[in-house]
Prior knowledge:
This protein is an alpha+beta fold.
Amino acid sequence: MLNHNRGERGAAILCENGRPDLQEDTLELTHVFAGNPFDRGDAQRRDPVWLAAAERDASSRYLPLARLNVLVHDADGMRLGWLTRADVARLDIAVAPIFLGLLDGVAHFAIDVSELGDPVHELNLDDAWRFEDARAAAMRLAAEETGIVAQARAQVGWHRSHRHCSACGAPTVSSRGGHVRICGACKAEHFPRTDPVAIMLILDGDRCLLGQSQGRLASTGMYSALAGFIDQGESIEEAVRREIHEEAGVIVGAVRYHSSQPWPFPSSLMIGCHGRALTTKITIDPTEMADVRWFVRDAVRAALANENPELRVPGPIAIAHHLIKGWADGEVDV
Ligand SMILES: [Zn+2]
């Protein structure tokens, strides 16, 4: 169970950059890439007249992305690089802006400037401005701005890869400020997708199950909670049990939800759980996993403090860190 002692838990989760945050009114963890402050403006985006006026409004703000990297600038720390309508109106691009939402009555848009050769130069920006990888930016941006990055990156990426209808192949056109693409031929409506991923820390008393997937994790020597896409027609709990059995050969019983994190690479939702192991013998799927092992709590605590030369675990940007830390600190059990 989650420990809902506010003071204890609130103090326990404050990491060096203050994230993720505990929302005192809901007792929910707000991870990096969550906490988007926008009102997504469902009524406004259905009003083409309002939307057209908002696009032209001098107070509206535009966030450019180039090849899915987000514009930032460094002044007192890194901030998102919002531009005005006048800034983007000078650009020779033929893409529809994506309405992200409203904040304090001001409309905010994302705009894909990938077709520009050198967008920083063409936007006439100085050296303090640059396009930054979303993951790297999230390490330095204010918490609420990482939520905006998640929305903007996922939506721009979806529009880039859905220019044609999956039903008939004809070109699609963005509508409702980017909340839907409509096929010009068969009129099919296509909506932005989010792919659910189960990420789970499996527990066996004083041990937890960590693995290295083939590829990136294996090349870094890092161990993390296991994860996998949820299949169609499958519950979260069933996905947790199936993935762990496929990748590690361990049978899981009880599953408890912990928290979730948008992960805009390209458009996943990480659904974090803890699960109780019913068996402990590990049989690795070598096509997916380079290694899977049980680690005792003291070794994991030392790894979280960067004091274990034998074990490295993900940092606070990732939900895996908080699944691991919550258990290591004795705040969760199954
Ligand atoms: Zn079509």
